[in-house]
Design a protein that fits this description.
This protein has 231 residues and is of the alpha/beta class. It contains eleven helices and eight strands. The model has no long low-confidence stretch (mean pLDDT 94). Helix 4 crosses helix 5.
Length: 231
């Protein structure tokens, strides 16, 4: 087995706490596109979000889907709005969403870089909001590669983003681990030929992730020790 020389992170639910970040986003976004509380509730149901409880369902398309997939789910409820306009509003509100770091990212990522690791982000969010979130956390420059679902490499669970990272940093997939909170992340890592690390800071349970992960950790704080234990 090759030594670990690179790490690709999912963003939401991995670097940032999903519920604390995106439940606030969902309320703001749905309020913006709705004319009445009833319409807001109906649109929330289309994307697996309970507007009364301000909570996502575990199978919500927002958790692992791309902005285009979320827009497609909402489209039947907003026939007067074009797909391009919907995506623009999605991305505008996403960029504004207050991010809750799972842990202080700058010292954590600095520690990984100090180990000589190349770092990347592969998210099903769009690239511009992803960069805005990482920049707000002071962590943008810590990454060698950042790809969103609109960056030209496709989205997860396909392997395109991960293989693009390997090409960008001249590493073999066997030298890279994929870290994420959903099966989409783990399937992408497997498809790319990487080891996969599941974390429990999203909505998926350990039981859901374990069949598809090399290891499941409570959160990314345990990653350095696990990497040090690898051959």
């Amino acid at each position: 087995m090759s030594a670990v020389r690179g790490v690709v992170f999912d963003k939401d639910g991995t670097l940032f706490d999903f519920a604390r970040t995106w439940e606030a986003w969902a309320l703001a976004f749905l309020d913006r596109i709705s004319d009445t509380p009833g319409q807001m509730r109906a649109l929330g149901n289309r994307i697996g979000f309970d507007t009364d409880a301000a909570r996502f369902e575990r199978n919500s398309i927002v958790i692992a889907g791309t902005p285009a997939e979320v827009a497609a789910a909402l489209a039947p409820g907003l026939p007067e709005m074009t797909q391009n306009r919907m995506l623009a509003i999605l991305n505008e509100e996403a960029a504004r969403a207050p991010q809750a770091e799972v842990l202080p990212l700058v010292p954590f990522l600095s520690g990984l870089r100090g180990l000589g690791l190349r770092l990347g982000v592969a998210t099903n969010d769009a690239e511009a909001p992803a960069r805005a979130h990482l920049s707000a956390a002071g962590a943008l420059e810590m990454f060698d590669f950042i790809a969103g679902s609109d960056s030209g490499f496709g989205g997860k669970p396909a392997a395109g983003q991960l293989l693009a990272f390997c090409e960008a940093v001249a590493l073999n997939p066997s030298e890279v681990i994929m870290v994420g909170d959903s099966t989409h992340d783990l399937f992408a890592g497997q498809a790319a030929g990487m080891r996969t690390v599941g974390v429990l800071t999203g909505f998926a349970t350990a039981q859901t992730l374990r069949p598809h992960a090399t290891v499941v950790l409570d959160d990314i704080s345990h990653l350095p020790r696990w990497i040090a234990e690898q051959p």
